[in-house]
Amino acid sequence: MYRFVAALLLVVTATVSASAQSLPVPSYWTNQRGSEMKLYNIDPQGNFDGIYINHAAGYSCQNMPYALAGHASGANVVFAVVWNNGIQNCNSKTVWRGRVTGKTIVTTWVLSTYPGGAPIGKGSDTFQEQ
Hints:
The protein has one helix at about 1-20; strands spanning about 25-30, 35-40, 45-55, 65-75, 75-85, 90-100, 105-115, 120-130. It contains one helix and eight strands. Strand 1 and strand 2 (about 35-40) form a beta hairpin. It has an eight-stranded antiparallel barrel. It has one domain: Avidin-like (Lipocalin, Beta Barrel), CATH 2.40.128. By secondary structure, it is mostly beta strands.
């Protein structure tokens, strides 16, 4: 009986460990506004980086790559873009918080002044892995 319980515990632990890193990297994502997110690297602690290309109508800093940095913990993700790439500076930062489910990331976001941090907009995005 002890061996059965130990084996069951091992299977459950392996399953949880396998799903703990649910953000595939490298990967390419788009959202409902046509914006693109390309994830390149992730370290063992879950810190990842990539680029974000904004195509959302009504927002500045479009059609150019901006550095993206984030953290994944299991299915939970948080990532941010400072909208300054050395060519164009929109004096703002967006932070997304969400959850990965398969090939979808459902997020909420806050757009703030940068530096400063005063909120100037909020919303939600759904990203689909391509």
